[in-house]
């Protein structure tokens, strides 16, 4: 029985190793649309992006240059990560961009991206987030107004009403995924990096 379990474990491990390119592929396919959308939004409304990076929002130095770097990094990096080309090289500036976003934009709002006053991440179990706790009353008031004066069923037919908290939750998740790609690369069999490396080895 022990020998059977041991053999099954080795076979499962060997199969998993053959599929080790799949997790990086899935991460890349998840991340790329997020990054491309963010970059495209910045590009499409570039003047607004520059203003937000400057005195109208983040108050960063050289807002035009910062906006250009962020936009280019997300658009070019998003394409490279999607096809798995220069994956590590693309992941590094994207990870730095995400870290800057966490520090300058999201950290002051706590962890939660969507306000949930019942969450243990806001109600004092780890720390207290007063803005999230206050959101319950605001959301209840908004629902009451809409039920009284609007077509509430139509307004909520695409999903529940929520309050955007803009915490670090999503950005931190993307950062961890980028750090994983920085370590693993694009993935065996599933990236252009793999096939270019294989071709290079065969040619030498």
Structure description:
It is a single chain. With about 200 residues, the chain is mainly alpha-helical. It has 2 domains: about 100 residues, no CATH class; about 55 residues, no CATH class. The chain has 9 helices and no strands. Helix 3 crosses helix 4, helix 4 packs across helix 5 and helix 5 packs antiparallel against helix 8. The chain starts with a helix and ends with a helix. The mean pLDDT is about 90.
- Spatial gap, N to C terminus: 48 Å
Query: Strand share of the residues?
Result: under 5%
Fraction of residues in H or I helices: 55-70%
Computed Rg = 22 Å
Q: Structural class of the helix and strand makeup? A: mainly alpha
Mean pLDDT: 89
- List SSEs in N-to-C order: HHHHHHHHH
The number of helical elements comes to 9
User: What is the tally of beta strands?
Assistant: 0
Give the overall form.
Answer: extended
Unreliable segments (pLDDT under 50, ≥5 consecutive)?
Answer: none
Instruction: Quickly count the domains.
Output: 2
Largest sheet: none
Can you lay out the helices and strands and say which pair or pack?
Layout: H1 2-18, H2 22-44, H3 46-53, H4 63-83, H5 87-106, H6 130-149, H7 152-155, H8 169-184, H9 192-203
Helix pairs in contact: 2-4, 2-8, 3-4, 4-5, 5-8
